[in-house]
Specification:
Layout (H helix, E strand, L loop, with lengths): L3 E8 L18 H12 L3 E5 H7 L8 H9 L7 E5 L16 E5 L5 H8 L3 E4 L7 H10 L4 E4 L3 H9 L5 E6 L23 E11 L2 E11 L1
Parallel strand pairs: 1-6, 1-7, 2-3, 2-6, 3-4, 4-5
Antiparallel strand pairs: 7-9, 8-9
Bound molecules: NADP nicotinamide-adenine-dinucleotide phosphate.
Length: 222
């Protein structure tokens, strides 16, 4: 058993989610940013990989006071549970994502001193020997009441989740810029597929700001 998982990402017209410097780029317009905030507000948890934490230092909280208030009225915490997938407990102690209602998922190989320091700033969950066991993590999340999980990147975490068959839908906002660079991250990196590709069903397509929002449902493997 696992939550319903949606990968949400913004990418350039050429499929890049960042630059060769791996720093955050504004790809979305104002309407897409509102859509992302709304999706967060309707999710029980949001998740990123440690690469994204190191690159972008995201806070992963809801920006709109009205959406926070909506959650509170529904008897939920004002922000969804924030999760970082971080095998070696490399999350900087100054990271904006740390705080109440944050879970850092580490593996057994994470140094004890780093785990101890992080556990003073967030909840720590151990799963997997060398890398975080994503199946065990998602099962744990489901058991504690997380029914909907929004994954906000990055490229390697997206690949790992898709490879394990743990993704239900992919939402991509395609913005009107070209980034280029063969080492710039794309929506899905990792080692990639050479056969048995992931197949998708087109669920929705809509023009938004100066780009396009595409919603895909994951069908399976070829
Ligand atoms: N445009 C967008 O919407 C958007 C959104 C998010 C991020 N980004 C960009 O994406 C880039 C970061 O992507 P990224 O690929 O470098 O990093 P990432 O996917 O955020 O994190 C990858 C890291 O997660 C850790 N991890 C732990 N368990 C794992 C598992 N089972 N499978 C896979 N990874 C696991 C690994 O590090 P350990 O082995 O150390 O644990 C891995 O290197 C940045 O440039 C950021 O700006 C863009």
């Amino acid at each position: 058993m696992r939550p319903f998982v949606i990968i949400n990402s913004a990418m350039s017209a050429d499929g890049k989610i960042s630059t060769t410097l791996r720093k955050q780029v504004r790809i979305s317009g104002p309407n897409d940013l509102k859509r992302v905030d709304t999706l967060r507000a309707h999710s029980d948890a949001v998740m990123v990989g440690i690469g994204t934490v190191i690159a972008d230092d995201p806070k992963l909280t809801i920006k709109s006071d009205a959406l926070k208030a909506m959650r509170t009225r529904q008897g939920k915490p004002s922000d969804p549970l924030r999760i970082v997938v971080d095998s070696s407990a490399r999350t900087p102690l100054s990271a904006s994502v740390l705080g109440a209602h944050t879970l850092i998922a580490v593996s057994q190989k994470a140094p004890q001193h780093a785990v101890k320091a992080l556990s003073e700033k967030a909840e720590v969950f151990v799963a997997g020997e060398h890398v975080v066991d994503l199946v065990a993590l998602l099962s744990h999340l489901k058991q504690r009441g997380v029914d909907s999980l929004m994954v906000e990147g990055g490229a390697r975490l997206n690949f790992a989740l898709l490879d394990l068959g743990l993704v239900d839908e992919i939402y991509t906002y395609v913005g009107n810029i070209v980034i280029g660079g063969h080492t710039a991250p794309t929506l899905v990196d990792g080692v990639g597929f050479t056969a048995d590709f992931i197949t998708l069903d087109l669920k929705e397509l809509c023009r938004m700001d100066d780009g396009l929002l595409i919603k895909w449902r994951v069908k399976g493997r070829t």
